[in-house]
Protein 1
Amino acid sequence: MTRHAYRAALLHALEDPCRAPAEAAWAYHEDGLLVVEDGHVAAFGAYTDVFPALPPDTPVTPFPGKLITPGFVDAHIHYPQTDVVAAWGSQLLDWLNTHTFPAEQAFADRAHADEAAAFFLDELLRNGTTSALVFGTVHKTSVDALFEAALARDMRLIAGKVLMDRHAPAGLCDTVETGRADTEALIRAWRGRGRLGYAVTPRFAVTSSDAQLAMAGQVAAAHPDVLIHTHMSENLEEIARVGELFPDARDYLDVYARHGLVGPRSVFAHCVHSTDDALRRMQRAGAASAFCPSSNLLLGSGLFSLKQACDCGVTVGLGTDIGAGASFSLLHMMGEAYKVGQLGGEVLDPLHAFYLATLAGARALKIDDQVGNLAPGKEADFLVLDLAATPLLARRTGAARTIAEQLFVLSILGDDRAIERTYLAGRLAHSRDRTPPSRALYP
Ligand code: GUN
Ligand code: ZN
């Protein structure tokens, strides 16, 4: 048995601040001790409470002045879109055709997918993201490449092959039957390996026929352990197009619901323009939404209302939506979520933003029994945050009086530079100060 303890300030979320009193929603210890045994959390608490019970031979690593938190959970991201980050000048449908579809076609090549998967996962870890719900491309091999790389890093990651059988370049279209066969083959090949999970992944209603959506619903029903992951109600032009393509549907959600794609295992990216009625139906079904503020701002999609989703009782995680979103950092997303709130007349509390980036994401992905906070028994995916990573961060966090103020400064000024270390299941997976410069930049 291996046991190791880490001494620092500790913070994790315990409950949804929409539904719990503030004092029950999170736990913070200014001088805390985290004990990890065989990759799982054995204890989390105040140093003075936990240390006396620690077996005397346990090594203790002190991180003075640092903050330990759970790893971040990215509730919606596309690994093949790393190469379209920061594309200028368009909104969703034009952006897909101009930038995204050409980049995704390169994933027919396994060597390209392997290189992109390794870069992507290392970028997640550099940014403190330890779990994510990930879109591949239409190519089965894109998901093989990603799962192989995630297994090698022992990440808790959920991904799926994109299903799209129309309104896209021929090289990116599957059919009902090839989509079914590839999805079934991936579930069979990867089920139960490491900490991986599968998501049935129709891209969105525009690019899947009714027959393909029906197939997606059948595959999801046949495999109770898989998620359903798609986009919904992101952009007004997209919503109008879905209305034209599915004139009999009550609304966008109904397009999915009619095929058994709305349930407790569903995650819908965006929901920027969802009505109260649609959100309430999602809540009744147990479906979750992924709020992607950077993407929504860059593509000009609109302002998601966290208050509306909270009032309707929908579980909301936080997503980068790389490559429409412009950063891999969930810290940065917390800041972007705050700015979206400001534009919409809502003020996001920093601890609520932290909940979105950790436990809420784990809940949306149905992995909160394993990760999302550092409760004893959970997998020890955690971060060591450097509140003084830059001179300005040091100056501003140094003047902060509360953990909420510190978190807010981190969310506005922080990014990968603030992630000093990332641990996966108790094992050091990224150390900012030890990572050599990228080989691509310095051959
Ligand atoms: N809707 C359908 N596909 C996509 C995508 O790749 N990115 C975003 N942001 N929205 C989508
Ligand atoms: Zn997306």
Note: The chain has 16 helices and 16 strands.
Protein 2
Amino acid sequence: MGLTIAQKIIKAHLVEGKMKPGSEIGLRIDQTLTQDATGTMAYLEFEAMGVERVKTERSVAYIDHNTLQSGFENADDHQFIASIAKKHGIYYSRPGNGICHQVHLERFGKPGKTLIGSDSHTPTGGGIGMLAMGAGGMDVAVAMGGGTYYITCPSMTKINLTGRLTGWASAKDIILEVLRIMSVKGGVGKIIEYAGEGVATLSVPERATITNMGAELGASTSIFPSDEVTREFLRAQGREEDYTPLSSDPDAAYDEVIDINLSALRPMAACPHMPDNVKPVAELAGLPVNQCCIGSCTNSSLRDMLKVAAILKGRTVHPDVSLTISPGSKQVFQMLSQCGALSDLIAAGARILECTCGPCIGMGQSPNSAGISLRTFNRNFEGRSGTKDAGVYLVSPETAAVSALYGVITDPVVLGEAPEVSLPEYFSVNDNLIVPPASPEEAKGLTIQRGPNIKPFPVAEALPDTLNAPAILKVGDNITTDHIMPAGAKILPYRSNIPKLSEFCFTVCDETFPQRAKEAGKGIVIGGMNYGQGSSREHAALVPLYLGVKAVVTKSFARIHKDNLVNAGILPLEFQNPEDYDRISQGDALSLQSLHEAVKTGSVTLIDETQGITVPLSCNLSARQQAMILAGGLLNYTKNTGK
Ligand code: MIC
Ligand code: SF4
């Protein structure tokens, strides 16, 4: 039997387990990336592991999420990361160099390699044929130390692309169509591979838009073949030597096949508040718009920016609309300036922001109350923009730009012919904002700079055999990490300060949660389906741990969050009968008994003393995870076993 692209990369990196969907496999990791908001914690954990120098082929620390520096906290965090990177063999991408995923694609990504990043949109690298996965900071720290990365071997889904994009349809509309078909839960446990004649019609940045937002499917990752288009992109980046061809075998077997005819696609939008709430833009046309934001790791490539510039050239942004543009990288920004397109953007009235995540993670540009914001980003979860009652629509750069001109949601077709843009023969390469690490000899004399905002992180205790605790919080389906541990300009400066961060935990759902949890001393959280979807931030586990959360009982978990819970030492449990969720109320006194045995058998009984009922739960953990949860999380496990 032939192999799929992902299976070929897995096979070449397999250090443990069998490549059988559903079973745990261990992979050797070639490259890692971190960003500042998850990076400080990942490097604190890396330090705790006591490794002198990273053992990967390439590890890069990016500063892109929080560059506002509204107080000393961020600048201190940046210094901490810069100094630890220099000492331990990590490349450091300075603030201003761009969004991690965009820069990594441009400068470091290599087809056929494995990459994990402490950011859920790391699958962007799949656009260049990498097996690139989002992970918790602790997993990245382990991989930097040369340790194995463990995942549940995914099943394979093929998305067969036929035809080619026409008119105003854009790569964003392809992934929105996939989201419409599969939903935000549809990719769980799967790797999505793109295939078919349509692949060759898509440039690397377009492919990266698709694999980037594949994170919203809940997929383990998404990947494109590495072909002549990939070679051309790498050549234009001055690194053709990094090219290797990669395709699936003709007889490769897929568990699922979805066909999409690119020629039939029209502009689409994900409506509030979920990325899979997708409708044709034509159906939404006429809705007044207050804000359009173009950028983020999904849509900030030179191609996207040039399209937007061509649309805005000689025109003016509607007086009721605020249009922001964040180029994805210094390379993109500089090239826009060199070719004059930047001038077209400025002249039209766009507000040019730094090349960072910016409004995507609520770092400024929160919309007005009940405002309508069109964003080229990948997530429109409630409150993520910083305005709880804002309505965020996720669209292509083309739809955002045209709507910014008209002041209402507009199908770009009204402008007539779509502009054609082509990628340059050569990208302008200047890596002067990437600081290489010190040599091992030099590194010995270097000290780590640690500001007062960097506080120690909590470490769990070994799992008790009996756990009596109240149902401290009950939440519904699709709870995101933005609900559990919100981000944004007020909160992000405290990513290295868990005690301070805890004041904001779950406040989107329940303002009283932090106080109640502290008073109770310990608690169990009850959740619905797809609990913990969204980001990779391990703070969504570490902060509840700090607040005394010992277990989370749900209908189902999102992959990265479940791993983060286990790494942190919080017990993840699932209802055997989803309807039992309705029988438990917030505040009930709960008891979990004989846990040591139950974790191993996978079957746990929960006694709800308030309701007088017993509820069967599953504990779906690999043998390695069982040992980890019994020890009280990854760090304790590593200490105990030396592994
Ligand atoms: C996001 O898009 O939600 C983030 C911010 O990039 C997160 C990481 C974080 O919370 O720092 C992610 O996607 O993993
Ligand atoms: Fe940054 Fe937004 Fe991308 Fe997350 S999704 S990495 S916040 S641009």
Note: The pocket of alpha-methylisocitric acid (ligand 1) is lined by residues 37-38, 65, 119-121, 134, 361, 487, 534-537 (CB under 6 Å).
